[in-house]
Amino acid sequence: MATEETKASIVDRVRAWGSSSLPGMGLATLITALHWRPFQAMPMLLTPLLMFSSYLSVAGFKIDSAGMTAAWSGIYFLLAARRRPAALKNKFSARGAVRATAMGLSAANVIAGTYTYVTGDRKAEEQERKEMDKWGMYSDSE
Asked: What are the backbone dihedrals phi and psi of residue 137, each rounded to the nearest 5 degrees, phi first?
């Protein structure tokens, strides 16, 4: 049986994954590795959006970043799931391993990002942004 600490630990890990800037940037890197050569425009349109969601997370908008990462990761997952490798040997190549990693990461992003977005506390996030005040947005410039 799972204890309360284990349940809390899993929830904390999912929330930490969803509010981190790394999953979106990691998925953008994998998408670029897969779809740069030969260039495929549709998947490559998602990379700047995922990078922007990582920037939002670093800027302090972690809940909105989680939602954006979940949405674009889900779209990539659906796009990637449509494509089937031509032969069985293509599934077990280096490219196939990167594709499987990208699809797994996008699925994890959807789950963690959706959870973080749905259960996020915007008032606490705003208070945290005001306390950190990275770019002097909330300080009195007098």
From this structure: -70, -30
Give Cα 69 distance to the centre of its chain.
4
Distance CA 35, CA 52 (A): 19
- Judge contact between 112 and 62, C-beta under 8 A: no
Q: What is the pLDDT of residues 87-98, one digit of tens each?
A: 676 678 888 889
Dihedrals phi, psi of 60, to nearest 5 degrees: 110, 0
The pLDDT tens digits of the residues spanning 10-47 come to: 999 999 999 999 999 999 999 999 999 999 999 999 99
Structure tokens at 79: 């796009």
Total-model pTM: 0.86
Handedness of CA 71, 75, 81, 84 (dihedral sign): negative
Residue 103 Cα to chain centre, angstroms: 12
Query: Which pairs with CB-CB distance under 8 Å and at least 24 residues apart come from 4-13?
Result: none
- C-beta of residue 73 within 8 angstroms of C-beta of residue 54: no
Q: Which amino acid is at 52?
A: F
Tokens 């909330």, located at residue: 138
